[in-house]
Every structure is written in structure tokens, then in C-alpha cells.
Amino acid sequence: MSRRCQLTGKQANNAYAVSHSHRRTKRIQEVNLQWKRVWWPAGQRFVRLRLSTTAIKTLQTKGLEAMAKEAGINLNKF
User: Fold this and answer.
1) C-alpha 73, offset from chain centre
2) What's the pLDDT tens digit per position in 13-60?
3) Residue 42 to residues 9, 33, 76: CA-CA distances in angstroms?
4) How many CA atoms does the CB half-sphere of 33 hold within 13 Å?
5) Are 61 and 48 in contact (CB under 8 A)?
6) Contact between 19 and 27 (Cβ < 8 Å)
7) What is the dihedral sign for C-alpha 47, 51, 53, 59?
8) Is the pTM of the predicted complex or chain greater than 0.90?
9) Which of the two ends of the chain, N or C, has the fewest CB atoms closer than 10 A to its terminal CB?
10) Alpha-carbon torsion 73, 74, 75, 78, what sign?
11) Model confidence at 1, in pLDDT bands (50, 70, 90)?
12) What CATH number is attached to the domain comprising 59?
């Protein structure tokens, strides 16, 4: 499974690590992903998703149904 948020689609970013002498080497900025069990009221069960921490915070305001609809995810498969 790729390191990607299932609701927002966030993934790793390529960047440079810059030393004191300003030598630049490639590095990866990973997304802070967490496995999260979220209660799905319409399905009357928990859904286990791999979410970024930003998505978890947004989930509390928008709700699971709205975010899944935006992402085009069918929650019955999880």
C-alpha cells in the first residue's frame, strides 16, 4: 500500500536537505499518516482508514460522509 491519505490524497513531497555550507541533497518529506478507526453512522459500523493528521482534524468538522464523497470513496469496501 502506498503512503497516501485515503481521503485527501496527500503523499510524499520531494525536497532538498540544505547543509550549513549550502550543499543540497535530495530528501523526502513524508506525510504523517495514521491508521484510524472512524465511526460511520450510515453504515452503523467502524471503518478503518489510513489518514493524514490534517484529514483527521478536518474529519471532525466536515464529517466522514462529506469527505468520502469528495474523495470518491465507497465506504462499503472498507
Assistant:
1) 13
2) 999 999 999 999 999 999 999 999 999 999 999 999 999 999 999 999
3) 23, 25, 10
4) 20
5) no
6) no
7) negative
8) no
9) N
10) negative
11) low
12) 2.30.170.40
- Domain contains 2: no
CA separation for the pair 4, 10 (Å, rounded) = 6
The one-letter code for the residue type at 70 is E
- With both helix axes pointing from N to C terminus, report the angle between 64-71 and 53-62 in degrees, rounded to the nearest 10: 120
CA distance 44 to 51: 20
Question: 69 lies in a domain?
Answer: yes
What does DSSP say about strands 45-52 and 24-29: parallel, antiparallel, or unpaired? Answer: unpaired
26 vs 43: CA distance, rounded Å: 44
User: Could you give the count of Cα atoms lying within 13 Å of 27 in the half-sphere of its Cβ?
Assistant: 9
Provide the residue range defining the domain that includes 45.
13-77
